[in-house]
Structure formats: C-alpha cells, structure tokens
Write a structure and sequence with these properties.
The chain has about 475 residues and is of the alpha/beta class. The chain contains 18 helices and 13 strands.
C-alpha cells in the first residue's frame, strides 16, 4: 500500500571514471521466483563501493548472471534487460519473461545485473507492518513505519539511486569485456536505460524503451489519474462489446457504486491464502479495492476479468476481487525491494513535484484518490536524499537508435510519456499496441521486431504491420473463461 517514495543532494555529478575489475562467472541456475522453473546461467559477484564518490566508506556486492547466446559465435554486444519497479531485480524479471527474449538471445548473450538494492545485490528491504497495511493511511503511522524501516536497512539508503546504479552497470560491462551494450528497459528500467546512455553513450549501441518513463516527468501525481483513465477505457470497451454489455449493463455505474460503498463501509470477508490455501479473515475496503483494480489493469489478460469481478463485488461477492488483491500484493512483496524503491522515488520524483500544476480535484475524484500520493510525500519527508546527476531530469538527446514501445491502455506510462521522452531523440521509432497494457515485449510479434532492430540497428526496416494482429484477451462473461 505504501510502497512508494524520495529528494536531491544538489547537482552532484558522479565521477565517470570506473576502475576495471575482473569478474569470474560460474555455472548457476536462475528462476523467476519461488515455485517457478529455473534455467542455466553463468553467475558471479562484483564488489562495488557503496559511495562511488568515495566520501562514505564501505562496499556492496552486485549479483551478475549471464545467459549465453544460442549461437556458438555470438555478436560481441549483449542485450541487457533492466527491470522496473523501482525495486525489482533484473535476474528474477528476466527468468520470469525469458521466452520474450529468446529471439534476441539467438545471437547475443543476455547480461543480467540486479540493480544495487534489489534481488541479491545487497537488497535494501524491510517488512511491511501489518498494522499499516490493514489499517487506513495515517501520516503518523507512516512516519513511524518509515523510520523503523530506515533503522533496519543494511546500508546507507542515500546511495541506491539511478545516478549511482548506472556506474555499476558500466563497471559490469568493463569487467565482462563487452565493447557496448544493447539496453532493454521496462517501466522504471527505461529511466535507467536513458540515463546510462546519457552518461556512457560510447558504451551504448541500441536502446529499447518499453512502457516509457520520461526524465522530465515526476511519478506520483498522475498515478491516480492515469489509473482512472485506464479503467474508464476498459469500462467503455466493455460497453461497446455486445456480449460484455449484455452481461454487465451500466458497468460504469456499478464501478462508481462499489467505490462509494467501500469508502464508507469496508467489508470483512474470509478468503483463502494464495500460498497456503488456508482461510483467513481480511478487511476489504477502499484501499484494498484500489490496489486490486490498479494492478488488474496492467495487462489485457487480467483486464479481461475486471467487469466480472466488479459485477460479483457489487452483488456482494467480494472474494474473487479480494483474492486478486492478496495474490498481487504478495507477488509485489516478494519481487520489490521497498528500501531501493523509496531511495529512487524520494530522490528522483517527489522532490520535483510542482504542486501548482497538480490537479488535486481529479486525483480526489479518481477511484484511487490521494492515498498513494499522500503516502509518498509522507515517506519522503523523513527519507534521506541521495545523489542525482545534474542533467538527470532533462530529456535524453542522442542519435543512438531508440525503439519506444507503448500500450494505449497502459494505466501508468501512457503513449504520451514516450512522446515526451523522444523529444530530443534524433533516431527513434515509437510503436503503440492497441488495447495493450504495461510492457509490450511479450505481445504478439514485438519480440521479433525488437530482435530485428537490435540485429540490424535499422529502425526503417522495422515492419510493425504485424502488431495489428496482436491478441487481446476477450472479456470473461463468467468464471468458466472468456467469451468466444
């Protein structure tokens, strides 16, 4: 619920010199998380200074994994997937979505670096307090929890920002002996990819930005309003679909009714624990509802369930929607490092908010309301500020080839964000998936287009006509499956 937050120590530019190290790799197995299948890789650990500027002593360890190319004589420049969040480790992200990268892996190694503070790279995390999660947002409780979190962190949280992390990635490139990198970033990972290319243009061959976060945008205020836009479009798409509209008439009215009901009167229900299957009692109110809806809206496959879940809940059956809430929050807790997340948000986003431009009325009118923005600002009021480079918030200006990917139903990084990021890109192509959500690499022919772009470094040769045939899951009319 309150997993989001951070500010800036003046215009600090970290030194560009990256001392060379050697990195020994050994056979290992990586996976997308507990219970998921594993795959072979070559893994190693690279020691890095906590503070690359040298003012604060100490070292951290970075986890590195290399998945070798399928070709026995691969190209010299690998593909580097960079996970989102902020707070997700790239090793786990890649292992969960490896099929989407098989085309690019044909001729190139896949290099995975758990960004400092995530995964197994000196993870910066602390447990979520049950009282905070189960209760409603309170400024006092959030401040108390944030201070307790800071006391539990294993390292100084100031040094886990993007400006520091890109120096790690360059050190990994040097240690592994690669001449340059092909960067793929998703969501927050697009921010990392853009800043790496800014700092190390000679080390960057191509860039793929999927679900684009433009440097000049501060995440936070538009989370609620973009989430509302996405839900409005889902409900409108159901109304335009004959089968969905007949099964769920006046769905927009039902949704608004549900928001109002849960704001005024949370329900106490019994739901099975997603991990153990044991029944447990859950207070399901407006906050839990907002989290469930927001995350369901991320992908067309889960979006297809939304009308059915809304109808069930408004008729008094909250268990299916509450179960979705429990599954998504557990998955987030396992995948995301809260301390690293806050380090990024409280340095790179919240300090740059221009409150004169924030539409507080639209935020209040959204199904999410101001809860998340309020929580972020409260967390960042006590979280220490980290280093940020001088040009960090300026759009990337480069002639490096950049392929930008968006979904027009994305609830967090809409296509206009990619247009903002592309304003000073002289060699770019922007592809938009119809009725697609957050992250396009696994959609239809996208993986093939990405591989072709990286192989040829030729945006003009990217034939995106195949995207018109990308599958979008039909709406579920009942729990037996989607409509024909």
């Amino acid at each position: 619920m309150v997993r989001y937050a951070f500010l800036v120590l003046g215009g600090l530019l970290l030194a560009d010199a990256v001392p060379a190290q050697t990195l020994r790799l050994e056979d290992c197995r990586i996976s997308g998380g507990p219970g998921m299948p594993s795959m072979k890789a070559r893994c190693g650990t690279l020691s890095r200074p906590l503070d690359p500027a040298g003012a604060v002593p100490g070292d951290i360890d970075l986890r590195i994994a290399v998945v070798p190319a399928l070709n026995l004589t691969p190209e010299p420049d690998p593909v580097v997937p960079i996970a989102g969040g902020p707070g997700q480790g790239s090793v786990q992200f890649y292992a969960a979505y490896s099929r989407a990268f098989e085309d690019v892996r044909r001729n190139r190694d896949i290099v995975l670096v758990d960004q400092r503070g995530t995964g197994e790279s000196s993870r910066m995390d602390c447990p979520i307090d049950d009282d905070l999660v189960e209760g409603q947002y309170s400024e006092e409780l959030t401040v108390e929890y944030t201070r307790a979190c800071l006391e539990q962190l294993p390292h100084d949280p100031r040094f886990f920002t993007t400006s520091v992390a890109v120096t790690d990635l360059e050190a990994v490139r040097i240690a592994l002996g690669y001449p340059s990198l092909n960067l793929y970033g998703v969501s927050y990972g697009t921010r990392v990819a853009q800043h790496f290319a800014r700092r190390y243009p000679e080390s960057t061959r191509t860039i793929v930005l999927d679900g684009v976060v433009p440097p000049q945008i501060s995440l936070g205020p538009e989370i609620a309003t973009e989430g509302q836009r996405a839900v409005d479009e889902i409900l409108a798409r159901c109304a335009d679909n004959t089968s969905c509209n007949e099964r769920f008439p006046d769905l927009h009215v039902a949704f608004e009714k549900l928001v109002a009901l849960l704001k005024d009167d949370p329900v106490i229900i019994t739901v099975p624990d997603p991990n153990t299957g044991r029944s447990q009692e859950l207070t399901f109110g407006h906050t839990e509802f907002a989290v469930a809806v927001r995350l369901l809206a991320y992908h067309p496959n889960s979006t297809a369930l939304l009308p059915l879940l809304i109808k069930e809940a408004v008729d008094g059956n909250y268990v299916p929607l509450a179960s979705q809430y429990m599954m998504t929050t557990l998955a987030m807790a396992d995948a995301l490092s809260l301390g690293m997340h806050n380090a990024v948000m409280c340095t790179e986003d919240i300090p740059f908010l221009d409150k004169t431009t924030i539409d507080y009325d639209r935020i209040a009118a959204s199904y999410m309301g101001p809860l998340q923005l309020d929580a972020l600002e409260t967390i960042c009021s006590v979280w220490p500020r980290g280093p940020i480079d001088d040009e960090f918030k300026v759009p990337l200006s480069t002639d490096i080839p950049v392929l930008l990917l968006s979904g027009d139903a994305d609830p967090i990084t809409p296509p206009r964000y990619a247009s903002l990021a592309a304003v000073d890109l002289s060699n770019k192509l922007h592809l938009i998936g119809k009725d697609q959500g957050h992250g396009q690499i696994g959609v239809g022919c996208t993986r093939r287009l990405v591989a072709s772009f990286i192989d040829t470094v030729d945006l003009a040769s990217v034939d995106a006509a195949c995207l018109e045939h990308s599958f979008v899951m039909p709406f579920f009319l009942d729990f037996s499956g989607p409509s024909p």
